[in-house]
Amino acid sequence: MNKEKLLFGLGAVSGSAAIVGSGAFSSTQVERGVSVSVVGDESAFLALEPTDGPNGQYASTNSDGLLEVQVSEENDKLSGEGLNPSSYYDLGKVFKITNQGSQAVGVWIEHDSEYVKFKTGGNALDNSDTPIYAEPGDSLAVRIIADTRGSESETLLEEITIHANADAGSEPAPPSTSATRTIELAEVSPGMEVPVTLTVELDGDSTVNVFERFDTELGVASFQRASIDGESVSPSFVDLDEGGGIVLFDGVGSGTLSVEYSLSVATDAPTDTVSFQPNLVDVDGEAVPLGGVDTIEVIA
Fold first, then answer.
1. Cβ–Cβ contacts within 10 Å for residue 153, how many?
2. DSSP 57
3. Residues 2, 164: contact at Cβ < 8 Å?
4. How confident is the model at residue 198, as a pLDDT?
5. Which pLDDT belongs to residue 26?
6. Which of 36, 85, 92, 278 is deepest in the core (most CB within 10 A)?
7. What are phi and psi of 19, to 5 degrees?
């Protein structure tokens, strides 16, 4: 458990004596060195450090060598001072945990916030019942999800405890998912209503974020319905408008998730081939490529 950042490097303590004939000794003392070292988080056996890239700006190593994650005005690398209320944020991969020890460990994060989640490789990292397995040398990139909807506090989370246990179990199988977009018409005219369906195959309870983007000149997207294997389900958040938007689902079960929306092609939409971007959905914090139709053609 990496809580106080105290790492123990113990030298081997051993001794042996050979008893030959009747010349046995009655006592002996063997001295060996024992080294106990406190090191910074980046050098520890369970190393903690910011990720490379823009999302790592939320994390830093302070003057005491300890990792800090600051999504607040205290972080001078950010121009903003915090998160919007009643909003959903995926901060991406903010910091990484590296097993620099000599044996495999199960890792999980303990915290007391219902509004912040930690994920890695598509799996929850804040569930002690399902720790994430890390071999020596493995790094776990930690993704932070913050949902301020329903929160009345200005502070969502102040402290986490990172656990690493050699007896925590084996590595979970990666999620098996796929996603496809289908459009009823390959060619459309200005002013038309066009049904679009996104399907996501899920092998277990999952958080699914559907991102749909296209040129705002094409038109407006409006949510119609969603279902799992034909049974109606309700998204936790919908924001579709000009140029697409986002639809969020919390804890939907296994099966085929279908998300249907209507694309209202603008009456002044230019005649052109329009691409949908990005061609992916997010399942449990991991991007899943979206296959199927990725362009639509506007004709006169």
1. 9
2. G
3. yes
4. 94
5. 38
6. 92
7. -100, 115
Residue whose pair of structure tokens reads 């924001």 in the numeric block: 239
Peptide bond into 278 cis (omega under 30): yes
What integer pLDDT is reported at residue 171 of this predicted model?
Answer: 56
pLDDT score for 278: 79
In 267-298, which positions are buried (b, 16+ CB within 10 angstroms) versus exposed (e)? eebeeeebebeebebbbbbbebebeebeebeb
For residue 126, give the nearest of 276, 288, 284, 287 by alpha carbon. Answer: 284
State which residues of the chain have pLDDT below 70. Answer: 1-43, 168-176
Q: How far apart are CA 280 and CA 41, in angstroms?
A: 34
Domains of the chain: 7-165 (no CATH), 178-298 (2.60.40.680)
Residues near 247 by beta carbon (within 8 Å), at least 6 away in sequence? 209, 210, 212, 223, 226, 235, 237, 238, 239, 240, 259, 261
Q: DSSP letter at 38?
A: -
> Does an H or E element contain 203, and which?
none
Read off the pTM.
0.51
* Distance between start and end Cα atoms, the chain: 65
User: Which tokens hold the place of 145?
Assistant: 């999800």
